[in-house]
Amino acid sequence: MKLLRLALLLLFPLALSAQAIPAGTILPVQLETTLHAGKLRAGQAIHARVMQNIPGTAIHRGAKVVGRITAVTPNSVSLRFNAVISHGHRIPVSTNLRALASMMEVSEAHLPEEQASRGLVPENWTTQQIGGDMVYRGGGHVMGANGFVGNPTAYGVRDRLTANGPCRAAVDGNGRPQALWLFSSAACGVYGIPGLTIIHAGRSSGAIDLASPSHPLLIRSGGGLLLRVRGS
Asked: How far apart are CA 193 and CA 105, in angstroms?
């Protein structure tokens, strides 16, 4: 029995490292690298952390997402995320960007929406997601502009994406509810960083291009991203 358990423990990381993350899967991450155009250089590594268990995969909260800066000017940054590191093993990915939020937006989304909620434990708070959905914890649901979109879970929500502007709902046949952390089901674009624009979201190549024409580009560590895994 001990030998069987040891064999299973040895085989699990190998299976995980070989497992592709299904196309269309959302990866809600928090930046661990400050993107300051004046201090970045091409080739520099960037890091983020997965903030919620990912349905349909072995990727758990705390897994790392890594990538590199591919180009930089004082007012723009180009980057790619190329791997998830989970249980010490590297899973190659190519992603595009659905939504991006500032550190302050992330912080505010953690707080109860109503003063009355402040006397309750966090598990029963009502909170507002980045992009507008309302989360009614303690037995409630997640409600969007047109009604029910999903349910609260540990460390976030699990919702079905809805289309919004250039952002699509399900892609690559992946219509399952997604882990969206603090983002709404319709979150799309930039939140809380005036002047920042997503020039290219990376749909065709995985290359994400961000620009801030009016002042030097700065996205502080602690900001949030909704990445979506691209198909092959």
From this structure: 9
CB 172 within 8 A of CB 24: yes
Tell me if 138 is assigned to some domain.
Answer: yes
Residue 81, pLDDT above cutoff 60 = yes
Q: Does residue 156 sit in helix, strand or coil? A: strand
Residue 191 host element (H or E): strand 189-191
Provide the pLDDT for residue 2.
Answer: 56
Q: Taking the CB of residue 4, how many other CB atoms lie within 10 A of it?
A: 8
Distance from first CA to last CA of the chain, Å, rounded?
40
CB atoms within 10 A of CB 11: 10
Residue 3 has pLDDT above 60, yes or no: no
Band of pLDDT at residue 121, cut at 50, 70 and 90: confident
pLDDT score, position 16: 44
Asked if residue 21 is part of any domain, the answer here is no
Residue 185 lies in a domain: yes
Report whether 130 contacts 101 (CB < 8 A).
yes
Domain holding 211, by residue range, is 26-229
pLDDT at 15 over 60: no
Residue 99 lies in a domain: yes
SS (H, E, C) 91-144: EECCEEEEEEECHHHHHHHCCECCHHHHHCCHHHCEEECECCCEEECCCCCEEE
